[in-house]
Amino acid sequence: MGSTTRWEQTYKHVREPSSRSGASGHADIFLLQVAKCETSKWRYAQKQVASCTNPGILHLTAGKQRSLVPKDHVHTAQAFPQPQADQHQRKAINQPACQCQCQSSHATKFRIKTTDTFHGAQQCASGEWKTTANVTIRQSSRDKVIRASKSRGWKREHVITQQVNHPPRPLRNKIALLLVLHSNGLVHTLIETPMIALDCNRLTEMIARVLSRQLYILQIFTNCFFFKRCLFLFTKIQKDVRASKDKCYSCTETEKGSLLQFLAGLSQDGGLPATWRNGTDCCKWEGITCRQDGTVTAVFLPSKGLQGHISQSLGVLTGLQYLNLSHNSLSGGLPPELMSSSSITILDVSFNQLNGTLQELPSSTPAQPLQVLNISSNSFTGQFPSTTWKAMANLIALNASKNRFTGQIPTHFCNSSPSFTVLELSFNKFSGSIPPSLGNCSKLRELRAGYNNLSGAIDGTHITNLRNLVVLHLGWNNFSGKIPVSIGQLKKLEELHLAYNNMSGELPSALSNCTNLITIDLKSNHFSGKLTKVNFSNLPNLRILDLWLNNFTGEVPESIYSCSNLIALRLSSNNLHGQLSSRIGNLKYLSFLSLGKNNFTNITNALQILKSSKNLTTLLMGHNFRGEILSQDETIDGFGSLQVLDIQGCNFSGRIPVWISRAVNLQMLFLCGNRLTGSIPGWISSLSHLFYMDVSSNSLTGEIPLTLTEMPVLKSTDNATHLDPTVFELPVYNGPALQYRVVTSFPAVLNLSNNNFTGVIPTQIGQLKVLAVLDFSFNKLSGQIPQSVCNLANLQVLDLSSNNLTGAIPAALNTLHFLSAFSISNNDLEGPIPSGGQFDTFQNSSFSGNPKLCVSMLTHKCDSASIPPPSTKETTKPRYKKSVFVIAFGVFFGGIAVLLLLGRLIVFIRINGIRIRNRRENNGDIEATSFYSSSEQTLVVMRMPQGKTEGTKLKFADILKATNNFDKENIIGCGGYGLVYKAELPDGSKLAIKKLNSEMCLMEREFSAEVDALSMAQHDNLVPLWGYCIQGNSRFLVYSYMENGSLDDWLHNRYDDASSFLDWPTRLKIAKGASLGLSYIHDVCKPQIVHRDIKSSNILLDKEFKAYVADFGLARLILPDKTHVTTELVGTMGYIPPEYGQAWVATLRGDMYSFGVVLLELLTGKRPVTVLSTSKELVPWVLQMRSECKQTEVLDPTLRGRGYEEQMLEVLETACKCVDNNQFRRPAITEVVSSLSSIEAAP
């Protein structure tokens, strides 16, 4: 029976992959060979699988999850021609076997059973069936392994056939091949070999096929811009198989030469394996795959730390099908030889530093085989070249996000490539509207063009053609107008993202025709009208509905309660009213519910309904139910899963209800801003997970109960208890934010302020080791401040103001190194104010209103000075959050003020030293200051600014007078090294005098030598060190004075001053200047200087907002056994890189992490560690939002809508690279300088 003309393989889909992101669930597919004879008869050939040498990509589309997979849920597509079988193949088939018992065609069929059993069969033309084999799936320890066994019995209706590509000649040994079928329509191949090593050449041929055509296509789609689901990738070849590869063929000299040219173009190749430098056979180099003839088919080198440019020699590799150079630091342009390659089908150069424009291909360029192109996360500019995209006739997916492309969205994709499926253009500078030609993309599944400057109305006439669209993401643009009615024709749409636009009007009723919708995100627009126009009951798959910050009116439509799969519902900040319907109980999976800032009524009804929501973890209903009585109904006994309860600002009356005690998993409780009365109930300590309690601004009475001091989480130092990270949109997260001794995520808070509590502060309060914020202000507390407060080592905010406290301030409070906001004003305290530590940074207003307090400052006697009475303004209750933000965490922690009015002040430095007799001035206060007894022996050493001549000598007495005896009113900065004072000289010029902590400094000779060396570091963006003074054991550094203070002050401490707003061009200017200063000490200074404490308070600004890096090199002035901060850490909390937790050794890479945090401050306007805001630490929060494709939401709201979003997002990418947890992936400062310099300040 003649020769075999065609081979085919039979595939069967057993299990659907898991639908959850990142899951490794997959479908198992078994392959059998089937030979077709010239007589059209079919026979079962063998249970083994051979490779296919013909290039191409296999696409399989999965159906929906079912326990039994019907026939119409298994799909395959053939894309390759069928070559003729050679003589060896015909021999292997055993031709006589084509004469089967059946007199007509035979085919191998499969049946699916819940027992995971396959049954093979042959069907004859007569309709008879014959059992041929049984194959079972066995669950092994790591993988699913196919084993053949004999079994019989099946039914015809269970038999399903699917046929795909042919195999070439069979392998010498048997293998099992599993295809992992993912829900995104892509295939990954898992090769598992039993004990026998395979024929070397045939195995290599198959691996080449797997690597070049199936495996790595998936890796392009693993980021959030393409598919939300992570794809499971895994290739396993046993050791004996890998060993057999040593016997395989070698690459050609031509191929090797091209790869070596690529290697020569790299300036940094430390990430490449040693085989690239020492091996002679490039087919054995890691990341290289070859065919049988030595032709390179795949180059796979992601995340290797490569620097330099991409050589055009890679385009000479005529057999190269797959090229992945992603996640490196490659720069320069993209060689046009790669775009015009006649062989490359998958090209991935994402996450590099490539720049320039994409080269336009000649109009005569033939159709290219390129199917997948990923150039995302680079710095490409310009418009998309039209002729280039016209040549991409086979393009399936394009990811060009996170670049700087301009102009309109290209119009040629679907005209040239009818199979175009994925278009990702987010985070660019595209303008104009959605091109009408995009309506030709009938197979388009994902359109993501968010975070651009797109505008105009969304044209519904073109959208109607996108019948296969699954994801439509146009958020964070400037679209206006209404949602087109024709959107209802997108029957397959699952995700609709239109957030942060200027769209308006009512929601179209046709939206309910999109029956597959899972996510609707329309937040922050101007939509209005009633929600009842949309029949949400037609959206059974809806899981997330976010309508925050719009103008919707009316009641919550009943149809929403038919969305039984809803897990997150946010309707806050609208104008909705009415009562909650009892049907909300139908939402069995509801986890997040936000109804705040509306006009809902009947709190008792709402609680009775919601108490049975077993999955509800976050309930935000504040600023509703105004003036009602908070229900005390004891029948409210649910909320067993609740973690966050917010009913603040409702003006409730009544007592703290007992039903809260039944929310046994409650972690955060917001009851502030009501009119609650009575005492704090004793059951509060039974809430064993509660770590955030805010009952401020009520009318509560009684003593502070001891049960508050028994709250388990606040007593424990175990930080494992945090909010579940699955809460929707609420920035409450768990473990990753942990940094040393800082309580992470939300800080632990106990806020009882603005009530009527009486009695004493319990001594047991010192048990709450985790507490970060303790606010008992504006009550009627009496007695002394207990010494146990000094045990609260994590305390960041302590406010005991406006009570009736007496006695002394505990001196040990100065050991609370994280204390950044402190107030005891308006009490009846007495005795000395503690000095040292953070107390040197607190202003007089923190102590005012205590006439019996005295200042132990310098050599003043404590009874010779007192704190002045407060002004009327100071006695009023400060805004709680503002007081924290004004002082918290960065308020000049070690910042030095800088700017010398050159030409008005001449400072003289004499290296040999000059003893100057300290003249007594007529001012008696100066004579009474410290150092007065030794001023005659003051050593003043000053160095002139470069290019200046010797001038007026500056005496230490002049410094005393200029600082008013180092009065606290003149403190302009503080940190681990010491305090900074403003000194104003008689001629009107100003200096910044840094008084170092004397107990930490080097001896005089070593100190002088180090200062002399530091003064040589001169750069336009470094604070110039003009001189120093040595007075006894004290050390003083003399700097220029900066009129505009520190960046920290401008970002975080000037809320009420509209003129203090920093626009984006100014912030970008500051970032560029600071990077240049850091670059100088890192790369130019010899030896290099590690700053150790980069932070916003060490970025100082002159009158033109030019940035200067301050405090560099000060660690060299400190004794080796002293750390430069009192927390015994290198750096300042929030800026400390994670690796310092293992070894407190400062590095250049650590500086880069800290600088990345500063960039994030500039972008977000937030502190690295925010005390009272409902958010986590800055870095983890930003990275989390970025991973969820919500980058724009982290940007400072005061900067949004001003046309700078694209630039800010570019800087955000640089900042995120700097704060990479892996220090070896952080860019050098030169790279950051280059990146920032390429960004223009103009929009």
TrEMBL record:
Pfam families: LRR_1 (PF00560), LRR_14 (PF23598), LRR_8 (PF13855), LRRNT_2 (PF08263), Pkinase (PF00069)
Membrane topology, as annotated: Single-pass type I membrane protein
InterPro entries assigned: Kinase-like_dom_sf (IPR011009), Leu-rich_rpt (IPR001611), Leu-rich_rpt_typical-subtyp (IPR003591), LRR_dom_sf (IPR032675), LRR_N_plant-typ (IPR013210), LRR_R13L4/SHOC2-like (IPR055414), Plant_RL_S/T_kinase (IPR051716), Prot_kinase_dom (IPR000719)
Coiled coil: none
Domain Protein kinase: 966-1243
Keywords: ATP-binding, Cell membrane, Glycoprotein, Kinase, Leucine-rich repeat, Membrane, Nucleotide-binding, Receptor, Repeat, Serine/threonine-protein kinase, Signal, Transferase, Transmembrane, Transmembrane helix
Enzymatic reactions: L-seryl-[protein] + ATP = O-phospho-L-seryl-[protein] + ADP + H(+); L-threonyl-[protein] + ATP = O-phospho-L-threonyl-[protein] + ADP + H(+)
Single GO biological process annotation from the record: detection of stimulus
GO cellular-component term (any): plasma membrane
First-tier enzyme category under EC: transferase
Biased composition (Basic and acidic residues): 9-18
Annotated region described as Disordered, given as residue ranges: 1-23
Transmembrane segments: 884-909
EC number: 2.7.11.1
A GO molecular function held by the record: ATP binding
The family this protein is said to belong to: Belongs to the protein kinase superfamily. Ser/Thr protein kinase family.
Protein name (Swiss-Prot/TrEMBL): non-specific serine/threonine protein kinase
